[in-house]
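Forwarding the complex inputs:
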Amino acid sequence: MIATLINGHAGGGIDSADRGLQYGDGLFETIACRDGAPRWLALHLERLQQGCERLRIAFRDVDLLRAEIRGLAAGQQRCIVKVIVTRGTATRRGYAPAGDEQPTRIVSRHDWPQPPGRADAGFQLGFSSVTLGTNPLLAGLKHLNRLEQVLAQMQCDAAGLDEVLMLSSAGQVIGGSMSNVFFADDSGLFTPELSECGVAGIMRRLVLQAAGRHGSGVCVRLVEPSELATVREAFLTNVRWGLQSVRVLQGRTLPSDAYAQQLRGLIDAAHA
Amino acid sequence: MIATLINGHAGGGIDSADRGLQYGDGLFETIACRDGAPRWLALHLERLQQGCERLRIAFRDVDLLRAEIRGLAAGQQRCIVKVIVTRGTATRRGYAPAGDEQPTRIVSRHDWPQPPGRADAGFQLGFSSVTLGTNPLLAGLKHLNRLEQVLAQMQCDAAGLDEVLMLSSAGQVIGGSMSNVFFADDSGLFTPELSECGVAGIMRRLVLQAAGRHGSGVCVRLVEPSELATVREAFLTNVRWGLQSVRVLQGRTLPSDAYAQQLRGLIDAAHA
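Prediction (whole assembly, two chains):
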């Protein structure tokens, strides 16, 4: 059931001179769709536009894009719509954009994937040996430079884990290879700050909001790997999984998933 | 005079599900061609194959690729041939490759670009504020994740510099945004080591070889930005520029280009 629109047209290919291919010069969004409609679409489009501003990609067709996403989601009980916006076909050679490129817009619909095998029993989470390079100019963005995540997921597959935690090159815990992470200990909930690397996920934002409004909040801070030996709860977030409890963290079974249960309820109620 | 072959066929487009576009999951080479032939082709193909091995891209069509590069260079007095090899069209969604992808091979011919305005008088070189994230698994590779270079070159354009020097996130000098860099002081020649980030350039390799065989060698080591205040000579390398002397480094005019002159002669003689 894959369907793809490229600049509004069904099918066709991408120019091999597109800077998205040449340099990873673009951004993407992965949107969860239920009951014929994209969820949290405004937040996805806001992040995409902020990313375009930071990379100085002159993307103006947000209204067209919104309509295309809704069109692909319509009539589908459950699907994923992926959006890619690149700076467009290069109008000169070399890393520096000329400034007159016309952004490329790709919107594709995909089946909702099956969860990993052990998902019902809670995830098994371990550390990846693949680290994340730091760059404050790119941190938080869902850009197309994703080789580190590709390498980490290869490892995840090989190790039989459901997801892997990645550290920054500076040694801090950043998040999963395709998710953000939250932890709880006696001091409450905390999650890595992402000013040096990592992707600022939509579900992470919803969790921060829900916990701030209705709970005791989340401390956003540097997280050392050594801290994880004493956490009582951990959960992963992305728009497909929602809040996915971690049952086994580095071989240790965690005793609680109380925060995840409470926050799931709050987020569902707010977005019902 | 652009001509492009995609998996051996002229023209056409790239599948929007190609992992090269989706994640920057691939590699490239930029090959200088003179008098109808690609220069240092064996070195380019060797680096490409080593990159494929490190990323576990099952690229086997090196003989076809070699023939295509030669075909595009034939009859051209001077041109650039760019090669991209990606892991291929995704056969499942997500960062982890399925393992059965068929690599995509893109070979394109481009005009030899005009050098920057001040090139005859020697380059002006300054520091970029864009840093390079470190990752030993990707260091040295000419992979498709190039957003940091794109951002740095935007800055270079804006600052009126011919090239910018980039530091790693750990604060060491790594190289230019599209070149490697060599320095000389009273102790002799030195160049940044690239085990944490940067691209191991073909011309860099030729310089190391020539200086090792016929000169007093090059010290490959960590380079601190503070050291550049006392260097007597600096030059940049890539296969298009060869050895490009730096005339002005961070506003200071350098007194010498003796090493560059000597090494240019040695490399030309070895590859005449």
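The two ends of chain B are 27 Å apart (CA to CA).
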